[in-house]
Write a structure and sequence with these properties.
With 98 residues, the protein is of the alpha/beta class. The protein has one domain: Rhodanese-like domain (Oxidized Rhodanese, domain 1), CATH 3.40.250.10. Helices cover 30% and strands 20% of the residues. The protein is globular and about 30 Å long.
Length: 98
């Protein structure tokens, strides 16, 4: 499983990189704040909403601590998607939230 740290994601965003970030936390968790531009697809709905994703893009998966996003990465990799897990999740995020 490929991984990226929260700090690395923040640096890329600050450089103006266009990142595809999928937040797999529950809706009520995301309501407390998410990385700007992240799309919320709760882990339990990922299987049913993966048709919204493109296999040609790279997605960074995010959750609270990195565990659920790790499961999301394993699932999506098995389906042929290009995905990376943000280690430490939102607990490690020091950047702005929306």
């Amino acid at each position: 499983m490929r991984e990226i740290t929260a700090t690395e994601v923040e640096v890329l965003l600050n450089k103006g990189e266009k990142l595809e970030i999928i937040d797999v936390r529950e809706v009520e968790e995301v309501a407390a704040g998410k990385i700007a531009g992240a799309v919320n697809i709760p882990l339990g709905l990922l299987e049913f909403r993966m048709n919204e994703l493109e296999k040609s893009k790279e997605y960074i998966m995010v959750c609270r601590s990195g565990a659920r996003s790790g499961r999301a990465v394993q699932f999506l990799e098995s389906q042929g998607f290009n995905v990376v897990n943000m280690t430490g999740g939102m607990l490690s995020w020091q950047g702005n939230v929306e």
